[in-house]
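testing teh design pipeline on a random one, pls ignore if ur not involved
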């Protein structure tokens, strides 16, 4: 079997760099969980956000966002064995960690649709087996990753038991004594969802939940009707004498013998992706952030719920946060614990004023609430307007948007109200300010006694309009904001906020390049300098804890510090639509339930992880042979004392030494060279860093 070998220089190789984030600035409240493992006394959860979370009992999660070369990762499955966690993603790289906190990134053999990974210890030694939707499998053992093998059927799940691996999908395959995949008595016409081993037998469930299969050797299977089983299962685990499976729409089932099943429902609004047993309990995770725990697989306790599908805007008022999006309204008293409320869907904006929340959305939707819990419908059905934003100032609510239909043929829409309940409509020909066909209000804000509208649409580049908040018929009389700086030329201005006693307006070009304007009075404007072409598709802004902060697509957050925009630590790769600061916390939110929470001030430290495959001299540590004994050298000078520890890939500690403050290098015993591959850990100076090295012979 061919194995991947990597070298740097003549003696040693850095087999991937490791990134750790011991105290993340942003907490991801609702990761898109995709996989779960248990080992070393902890659960490790991975997500398609590129986020990894660890916990001992399902509460008190800590997290790390794994990045490589500045790009986020979509992680799909994780397993534990041989003293390490190994995670796979849809691509040509895998992740590995000794503790779930620091993660290394190394290449696999091919860019495939890796779906699931399982660990086992057959007679030939420990190994991880990854399976792929197109039927490929790959083995990782002490020698690295072997060649990809084609099992001949589409695969989506795997398990180990009775000395062999079993892979399930369009049928079931099992490994023989040579590690090759062979047919079993379950044909490819049988669509298998999940498989697990426990109680000295394998158990598999069909995708429709109608059939259960059992086997003591993984080759010969007995089929039976799976009474009480659920359809669409995504993962299955065994513990405390029970098989437990979870899957789509919060459905799950539990069985003591693998044939007779009892169905249960967790959270119907979430698709559950993973379940594992550890610490004498089952833990189940949903794709929208749900976390459930059970000691017996029958009675479940909710540890975390799921969020709305997407967020468009957040506001704070009356002692609570209100967020709106495609799935409606969510409310929180502290910014961390959110509860969905009944009300209209497809909401695009929310504001607070006159002791009332007002939210707007598609098809003329307007709803209001005095407490955020109970909402009243005031929808405007005159023309099926598409509201895009709402703001309150003085004594008036203004809702803006456009008429339905082809955007280029639409007309601007403006509605006003003094109480958020009774509304007055101004048609486009009633409005001053030169509103052309195809132009509309993309965003509204209020400050310094005036409303500002960011205008988009046909011919609306570099277009802002303002409206006074006093006098008769507020919302009817608009004028163009002039003297915008030249840096705004060619930009569509799509977001306007009033924060820290300033207007901040964001604009983008059709290619995504960004501009950020600010003004205290909407008369004299200046542009924040943006020197990085990487800052693109900016969506919203706020001022918090001493800095202007903007959010953008792909989970990017930037703070203006030291006269430059500095990227902040990431916690998701989902697009962010809004950011809000209030009640001493910062919230950033976006599509697919993305909701980030922070109490920390922005940091001026640039987050620029090294690219995959970088030489060891450019990593956090280098390992070189001088004379007879190798030496580990840090790439930085620590301010405090620390330790260097060396581990085998199985997790056995081989050596440990102390470093004093200012000391960067430590000599290792010569016997270390015989270990083949090593993982070196530095602990100290407020950080924990891991790096893997491999000897080239």
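output:
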């Amino acid at each position: 079997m061919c194995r991947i070998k990597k070298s740097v220089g003549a003696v040693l190789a850095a087999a991937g760099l490791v990134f750790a984030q011991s105290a993340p600035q942003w907490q991801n409240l609702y990761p898109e969980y995709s996989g779960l493992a248990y080992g070393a006394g902890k659960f490790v959860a991975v997500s398609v956000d590129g986020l990894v979370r660890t916990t001992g009992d399902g509460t008190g999660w800590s997290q790390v966002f794994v990045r490589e070369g500045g790009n986020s990762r979509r992680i799909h499955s994780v397993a534990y064995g041989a003293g390490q966690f190994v995670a796979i993603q849809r691509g040509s790289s895998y992740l590995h960690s000794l503790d779930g906190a620091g993660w290394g990134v190394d290449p696999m053999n091919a860019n495939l649709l890796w779906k699931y990974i399982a660990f086992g210890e057959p007679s030939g030694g420990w190994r991880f087996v990854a399976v792929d939707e197109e039927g490929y499998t790959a083995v990782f053992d002490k020698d690295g990753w072997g060649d990809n093998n084609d099992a001949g059927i589409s695969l989506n799940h795997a398990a180990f038991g009775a000395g062999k691996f079993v892979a399930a999908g369009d049928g079931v395959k099992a490994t023989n004594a040579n590690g090759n995949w062979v047919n079993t008595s379950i044909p490819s016409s049988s669509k298998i969802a999940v498989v697990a081993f426990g109680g000295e037998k394998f158990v598999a469930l069909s995708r429709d939940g109608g059939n259960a299969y059992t086997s003591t050797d993984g080759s010969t299977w007995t089929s039976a009707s799976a009474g009480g089983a659920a359809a669409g299962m995504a993962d299955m685990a065994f513990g405390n004498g029970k098989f437990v499976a979870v899957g789509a729409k919060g459905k799950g089932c539990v069985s003591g013998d693998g044939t007779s099943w009892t169905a249960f429902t967790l959270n119907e609004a979430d698709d559950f992706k993973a379940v594992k047993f550890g610490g004498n309990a089952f833990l189940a995770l949903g794709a929208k952030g749900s976390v459930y725990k059970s000691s017996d697989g029958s009675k479940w306790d909710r540890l975390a719920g799921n969020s709305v599908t997407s967020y468009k805007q957040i506001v704070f008022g009356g002692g609570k946060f209100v967020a709106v999006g495609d799935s409606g309204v969510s409310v929180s008293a502290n910014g961390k614990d959110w509860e969905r409320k009944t009300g209209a869907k497809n909401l695009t904006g929310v504001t607070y004023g006159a002791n009332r929340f007002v939210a707007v959305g598609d098809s003329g939707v307007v709803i209001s609430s005095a407490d955020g819990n109970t909402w009243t419908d005031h929808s405007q059905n005159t023309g099926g307007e598409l509201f895009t934003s709402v703001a309150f100032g003085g004594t008036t609510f203004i809702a803006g948007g456009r008429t339905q239909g082809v955007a280029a043929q639409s007309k601007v829409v403006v509605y006003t109200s003094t109480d958020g309940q009774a509304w007055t409509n101004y048609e486009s020909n009633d409005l001053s300010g030169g509103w052309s066909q195809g132009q509309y209000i993309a965003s509204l804000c209020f400050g310094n006694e005036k409303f500002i509208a960011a205008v988009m649409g046909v011919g609306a580049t570099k277009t802002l309009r303002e409206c006074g908040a006093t006098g008769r018929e507020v919302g009817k009389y608009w004028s163009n904001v002039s003297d915008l700086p030249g840096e705004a030329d060619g930009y569509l201005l799509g977001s306007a906020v009033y924060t820290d006693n300033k207007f901040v307006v964001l604009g983008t070009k059709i290619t995504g390049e960004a501009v950020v304007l600010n003004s205290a009075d909407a008369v004299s404007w200046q542009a924040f300098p943006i020197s990085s072409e990487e800052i693109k598709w900016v969506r919203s802004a706020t001022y918090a804890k001493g800095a202007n902060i903007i959010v953008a697509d792909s989970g990017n957050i930037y703070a203006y510090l030291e006269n430059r925009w500095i990227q902040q630590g990431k916690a998701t790769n989902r697009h962010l639509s809004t950011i809000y600061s209030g009640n001493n916390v910062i919230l950033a939110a976006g599509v697919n339930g993305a909701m980030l929470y922070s109490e920390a001030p922005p940091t001026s430290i640039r987050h620029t992880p090294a690219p995959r495959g970088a030489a060891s001299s450019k990593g956090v540590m280098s390992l070189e042979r001088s004379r007879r004994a190798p030496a580990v050298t840090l790439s930085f000078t620590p301010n405090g004392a620390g330790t260097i520890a060396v581990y085998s890939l199985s997790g056995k500690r081989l050596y440990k030494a102390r470093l004093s403050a200012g000391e960067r290098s430590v000599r290792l015993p010569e016997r270390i060279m015989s270990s083949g591959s090593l993982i070196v850990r530095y602990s100290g100076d407020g950080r924990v860093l891991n790096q893997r090295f491999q000897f080239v012979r």
